[in-house]
Amino acid sequence: MLLLRLAAATVLFIAPLALRAQATTVVLVRHAEKGSAPANDPLLSEAGQARAGALAEALADAGVQAVIVTPLQRTRLTAARVLEQRGLTPQAVAISATHVADVARAVREHKGQVVLVVGHSNTIPAIVGALGGPKLPDLCDAQYAQLFTLVIPDQGTPSLVRSQYGTPDAPTAGDCTRTMK
């Protein structure tokens, strides 16, 4: 719960500052924990459903104005409660060789707004970099609690705040040599 409050406080503090300066605030998360079925496009597990609720709670007062997802169910389901709260329709960006650049372009179409991006372990860090943030390693398979808030000013260098939301990841989640079972 403390992590959820920290994530919410981070977003609530940064978003109003960004809006006043006409900066774009981008909140990026990996999709929540996935189930096992269907194999090619799984739904969220029970833990993933709880994390999706925690995301909606963390962003309830952040003023999200746009949501970018992939066509896969797990990203849409992770964002579903935020979409419902805000009365928004997600913008799905196809997974392709140009996915990261396409998401960055889609974010830039929402200049001055608060944008939620729900992606995957190997795309979220790359999207942060494509938007001018620091180079980050891919997330490990067991990492779901990371919440990245990137503030992109009209001029100058973007700033990144890395926080967590929902149930914390296991202490070994950042060890990418382990695999989820």
Summarize the structure in words.
There is one protein chain. 35% of the residues lie in helices and 18% in strands. With 181 residues, it is of the alpha/beta class. β2 (66-69), α3 (73-86) and β3 form a beta-alpha-beta unit. Residues 2-6 have low confidence and may be disordered.
Based on secondary structure, the structural category is alpha/beta
Ends: how far apart?
26 Å
Q: Roughly how many Å is the radius of gyration?
A: 15 Å
Q: Judging from the principal axes of the Cα atoms, what is the shape? A: globular
Order of helices and strands: HEHEHEHEHEE
Strand order of the largest sheet: 3-2-4-1-5-6
Biggest β-sheet, characterized?
Answer: 6 strands, mixed
* Average predicted confidence as pLDDT: 90
Proportion of residues in β-strands: 15-25%
Number of contiguous helices: 5
Q: How many E strands?
A: 6
| Share of helical residues | 25-40%
The low-confidence parts are 2-6
